[in-house]
Amino acid sequence: MATNVTEGKMKAIVCHGDSLTEGNDLDKNDTWPAIVENELKVGIINSGISGDTTGGLLSRFYHDVIRHRPVIVIIMGGTNDLWWDVSINVIQANIFSMACQAQHHNIVPVIGLPLPLFIEAAQKQDMLEPAVGYEKCVAKLSELVKSLSANAAQADVVCLDFYHSFFNERGTVAGKYFFEDGLHPNKEGHRLMAEKTIQLLRTKFKF
User: What is the H or E stretch that residue 72 is in?
Assistant: First the structure.
């Protein structure tokens, strides 16, 4: 059932995350938070910081989210944690701590499920590899997504599923949505993320 969280309140959303949210490789207006803001005519704050971990997101949660008193916060992180082989339990503890803090301050948390890695492209780049290698990192990312989804359902927290949107009909990662690094969504990828976000905000929260 849809929930009207905006009734009697300013429509404000904070998108809290890492580079997948900041979109620093694109013009600001082409990032998914900006597209959502423009299409729904709702005030959105993009608090994404490239390279940040969920520990970093948690440490700046009050400054970047709570003090703005938004209606909704979309929390998405974990990819950078996995790059450094941080435990999935630690990642989830950080994310759900932010969700609990949001609820305490009457902010509705939405957990964004991070994008998959387009490993075929990433492996060709001259950059620092994941601490455990690409294949294990990809496997742990899949495990994180499953675990986040299951725990969010138990906690009655809404998930925004970006992850599965980036797979094609063959069940493989759709490379057309990524820059050549295989990690970051390109303009088309951000458009896809915006469409998923708009769909959820309209159906679940009556925006």
Answer: strand 72-76
